[in-house]
């Protein structure tokens, strides 16, 4: 206990708090801008922190990371474009809530449940760091394959309305993921001699194109002055109330589910190479399956939205767990953080817990402090960002398109990504008019590579046999789970019929 | 109130445009711009000294180092460590920007095609000797002139500590008697570590099953989780697992022993004639004038050999190793030829 009090004293130093606060503010801005992700923000500011004392520098990075993941949800709510890949699932319900005139509440949920996710995952990390990290690293190619398969099975869940009209863009996304160098043999596929296409179509420009430009174009195309006037009148009525907090009763009813989700997300975060995007999609999909009101998911469900907010911040504790315990990055941000720790003369890994034990405790406490800061700053700024909702739509559209172009370019400093983003934006627009759900396309592209590369990796390891499906227990469990989730409605139907007979 | 918010939004959008796109000729990233602002004051002070010291009136504006690999990797780290020192030496802002894709080819091609005026530099690595023979791009080390080398990345044959192999010879015997049974993880097909593993097979006459991962970290995680038998990556990339006793390094395929695993003998010391190691430094497009190259090379050699940069590189778990621009150019040319032959022999080029 004594070392925790010493740690707390170290973290509560004014300079540490100041840099944590600066980090939180930087993350807030960069995270909210589509295309500028938390990974980028942390990587950019890492060299600056070398001049600070370790505690202050690292507090700033932790602040940036936590806050950028949270603030990615703000743009998901307001302009239907995820600010960071991790907030992709926040668009499913967040934007729908905003359209219903509940934007203020959505912003409030985003703050509160992001913090809940961050805090619970920190506690999980404090208690079970080693067992989780050791188990997560057991994930081999076949487990990653089944994890990706679980993600792909969410396509059905993400589709609004017709399942078929969700699956078609979904498989289009899977096809798009085959562009570029073959992940195993290195053969060039559909590159047409272009160096830019060699590494495939990046997922972020596609995400920005579909959710940003595609949505803006669709809104311009379908605009209806009268409806808009009514909507804005209704919204300004809501705004004047400044409603951000949920009813007490509703808040408490959401807690148990979100606590569970935070556990799951921490675990997914601990698995190397599975980040917030996959975690939030899987958590959202599973929450939908166990929900009492699955029909509301994707149409502005408060429950669904809170789950996606909890999940994307929940991975942070998990990613830190793997990073600190094993020295293996749990996601892209923690890869950068490992470098930063090494610069301070600390080697993340099992020895970190003995040699630099006090710093590990500091990091855990920094997580808590940064999340509290996010809670305060997030709630204070929620009212300001809620007012942004009331801005004229034309201005929102122009800003979205500008931000989308900037974001796509900033990713790799490459105009090619901007072109991809614009083309995909048009595709997204056409999809929307034809009433296809464009969301699954992003999902297909995101998971396609993971699916293909890991299946083939697993088969390389077994010399072409598919035996890993039943020989590896984790894989087997996950496959059974996927099959069950699909078969369950039919099984219950048959059981019911039997009973009636 | 409403108007204020409107203008705030537009301002934010435009500001971010400026942040990202203002230097269309140098195309620096947000990082670049922000870092520039941070260090501008220092830079202008130093400008006075620098301009009086140099006879050629160069540099006059910001220098951009293009890193063809993503932020956080060893290439990016090196570029970002050297940039502030170069800035102090040259008296103009030196910024790092990442242009990633196609195993580095996108960034390398960009610098090859940019003006050879010394204002656009590139993180120059062993990849320039393998991208072209692998059929990824036609960009090679001959498109550039090196400023010098900062690090080497020896390839280390590494297994789990509970593995049945205790020496390199055990491992070689096994891959010879049971060809294709041992699984080896590398950082991606056609990536440097894949070529290392293939060259090892070539030198020993053994055979392994190659399993490509996304980067060395993925391969290391798979080794730790018991999903593969061995990896060929730089010791610095798996330092924590070596120190914790999870991994043991059987051989270092580099020229010299690695700072991250000083007890591990090189393959040559053990009688296997193979040297295979990555390296990294900086370079400019090949038509850059001699006077400018002279200034850049001097600044680079002073910056890299400064105690602070040297220590920072070593702290990061990388093998510091300075070499001059001329030496690196010659070595790279030689390696381009060697790797072209080797890749052809191995038949692993992508068509």
Folded structure, characterized:
Chain A contains 22 helices and two strands. With 501 residues, chain A is mainly α. In chain A, strand 1 (180-181) and strand 2 (188-189) form a beta hairpin. In chain A, helix 4 packs antiparallel against helix 14 (302-326), helix 7 runs antiparallel to helix 20 (439-461) and helix 10 (203-221) runs antiparallel to helix 20 (439-461). Chain B has 351 residues and is α/β, with parallel strands linked by helices. Chain B has two domains: 23-152 and 278-342, Bordetella uptake gene, domain 1 (D-Maltodextrin-Binding Protein, domain 2, 3-Layer(aba) Sandwich); 156-275, Periplasmic binding protein-like II (D-Maltodextrin-Binding Protein, domain 2), CATH 3.40.190. In chain B, helix 3 (74-90) links the parallel strand 1 and strand 2 (94-98). The longest helix of chain B has 24 residues, at 30-53. The interface between A and B is large, with 69 and 77 residues.
List descriptors.
heterodimer, A: 501 residues, two-stranded antiparallel sheet, 1% strand, globular, B: 351 residues, alpha/beta, D-Maltodextrin-Binding Protein, domain 2, 11 strands
Architecture blueprint of SSEs:
The complex is a heterodimer of chains A (about 500) and B (about 350).
Chain A: H1 2-11, H2 14-32, H3 38-49, H4 54-79, H5 90-99, H6 103-136, H7 141-152, H8 155-158, H9 164-176, E1 180-181, E2 188-189, H10 203-221, H11 225-241, H12 248-270, H13 276-290, H14 302-326, H15 332-343, H16 352-355, H17 357-388, H18 393-412, H19 415-433, H20 439-461, H21 468-471, H22 473-500
Antiparallel strand pairs in A: 1-2
Chain B: H1 2-21, H2 30-53, E1 63-67, H3 74-90, E2 94-98, H4 105-112, E3 120-125, E4 144-154, E5 156-160, H5 168-177, E6 183-186, H6 192-204, E7 209-212, H7 215-224, E8 230-233, H8 239-243, E9 247-252, E10 277-285, H9 290-305, H10 307-315, E11 319-324, H11 325-346
Parallel strand pairs in B: 1-2, 1-3, 6-7, 6-8
Antiparallel strand pairs in B: 3-10, 4-10, 4-11, 5-8, 5-9
């Amino acid at each position: 206990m004594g070392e925790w009090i010493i740690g707390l004293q170290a973290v509560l130093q004014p300079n540490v708090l100041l840099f944590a606060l600066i980090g939180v503010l930087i993350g807030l801005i960069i995270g909210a801008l589509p295309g500028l992700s938390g990974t980028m923000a942390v990587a950019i500011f890492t060299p600056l922190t070398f001049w600070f004392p370790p505690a202050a520098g690292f507090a700033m990075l932790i602040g940036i990371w936590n806050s950028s993941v949270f603030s990615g949800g703000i743009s998901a709510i307001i302009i239907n474009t995820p600010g960071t890949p991790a907030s992709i699932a926040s668009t499913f319900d967040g934007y729908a809530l905003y359209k219903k005139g509940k934007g203020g509440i959505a912003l409030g949920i985003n703050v509160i449940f992001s913090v809940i996710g961050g805090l619970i995952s920190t506690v999980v990390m404090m208690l079970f760091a080693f067992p989780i990290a050791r188990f997560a690293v057991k994930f081999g190619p076949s487990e990653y394959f089944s994890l990706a398969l679980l993600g792909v099975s969410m396509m059905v869940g993400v589709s609004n309305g017709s399942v078929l009209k969700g699956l078609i863009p979904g498989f289009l996304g899977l096809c798009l993921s085959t562009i570029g160098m073959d992940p195993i043999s290195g053969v060039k596929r559909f590159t047409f001699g272009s160096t830019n296409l060699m590494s495939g179509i990046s997922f972020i420009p596609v995400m920005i194109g579909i959710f940003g430009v595609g949505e803006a174009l669709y809104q311009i195309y379908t605009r209806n002055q009268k409806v808009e006037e009514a909507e804005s009148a209704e919204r300004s009525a809501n705004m004047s109330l400044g409603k951000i907090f949920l009813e007490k009763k509703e808040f408490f009813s959401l807690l148990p589910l979100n606590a569970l989700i935070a556990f799951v997300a921490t675990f997914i975060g601990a698995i190397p190479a599975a980040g917030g995007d996959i975690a939030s999609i899987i958590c959202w999909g599973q929450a939908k399956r166990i929900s009492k009101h699955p029909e509301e998911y994707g149409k502005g469900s408060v429950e669904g939205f809170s789950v996606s907010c909890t999940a994307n911040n929940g991975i942070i504790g998990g990613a830190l767990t793997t990073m600190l315990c094993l020295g293996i990055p749990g996601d892209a941000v923690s890869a950068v953080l490992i470098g930063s720790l090494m610069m301070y003369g600390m080697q993340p890994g099992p020895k970190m817990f003995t040699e630099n034990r006090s710093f590990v405790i500091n990091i855990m406490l920094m997580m808590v402090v940064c999340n509290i800061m996010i809670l305060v700053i997030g709630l204070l700024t929620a009212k300001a960002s809620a007012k942004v909702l009331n801005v004229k739509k034309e201005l929102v559209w122009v800003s979205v398109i500008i931000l989308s172009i900037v974001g796509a370019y900033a990713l790799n400093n490459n105009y090619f990504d901007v072109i991809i983003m614009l083309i995909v934006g048009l595709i997204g627009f056409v999809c929307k008019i034809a009433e296809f759900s464009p969301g699954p396309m992003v999902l297909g592209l995101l998971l396609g590579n993971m699916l293909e590369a890991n299946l083939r990796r697993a088969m390389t390891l077994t010399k072409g046999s598919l035996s890993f499906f039943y020989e590896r227990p984790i894989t087997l469990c996950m496959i059974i789970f996927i099959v069950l989730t699909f078969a369950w409605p039919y099984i219950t139907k048959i059981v019911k019929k039997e009973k009636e007979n | 109130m409403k108007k204020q918010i409107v203008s705030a939004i537009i301002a934010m959008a435009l500001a971010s445009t400026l942040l990202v796109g203002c230097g269309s000729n140098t195309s620096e990233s947000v990082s670049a711009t922000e870092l520039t602002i941070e260090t501008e004051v220092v830079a202008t002070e130093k400008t006075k000294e620098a301009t009086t010291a140099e006879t050629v009136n160069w540099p006059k504006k910001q220098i951009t180092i293009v890193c063809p690999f993503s932020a956080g990797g060893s290439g990016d780290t090196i570029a970002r460590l050297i940039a502030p020192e170069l800035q102090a030496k040259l008296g103009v802002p030196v910024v790092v920007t990442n242009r990633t894709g196609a195993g580095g080819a996108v960034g390398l091609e960009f610098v090859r095609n940019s003006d050879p005026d010394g204002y656009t530099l590139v993180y120059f690595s062993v990849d320039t000797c393998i991208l072209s023979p692998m059929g990824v791009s036609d960009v090679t080390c001959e498109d550039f002139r090196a400023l010098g080398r900062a690090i080497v990345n020896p390839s280390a044959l590494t297994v789990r500590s509970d593995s049945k192999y205790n020496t390199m010879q055990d491992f070689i015997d096994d891959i010879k008697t049971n060809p294709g049974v041992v699984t080896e993880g590398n950082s991606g097909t056609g990536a440097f570590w894949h070529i290392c593993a293939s060259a090892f097979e070539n030198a020993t006459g053994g055979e392994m099953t190659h399993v490509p991962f996304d980067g060395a970290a993925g391969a290391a995680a798979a080794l730790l989780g018991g999903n593969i038998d061995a990896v060929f990556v730089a010791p610095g990339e798996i330092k924590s697992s070596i120190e914790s006793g999870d991994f043991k390094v059987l051989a270092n395929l580099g020229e010299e022993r690695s700072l991250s695993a000083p007890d591990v003998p090189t393959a040559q010391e053990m009688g296997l004639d193979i040297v295979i190691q990555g390296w990294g430094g900086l370079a400019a497009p090949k038509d850059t004038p001699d006077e400018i190259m002279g200034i850049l090379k001097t600044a680079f050699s002073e910056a890299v050999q400064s105690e602070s940069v040297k220590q920072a590189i070593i702290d990061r778990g990388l093998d510091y190793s300075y070499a001059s621009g001329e030496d690196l150019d010659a070595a790279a040319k030689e390696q381009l030829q060697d790797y072209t032959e080797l890749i052809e022999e191995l038949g692993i080029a992508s068509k």
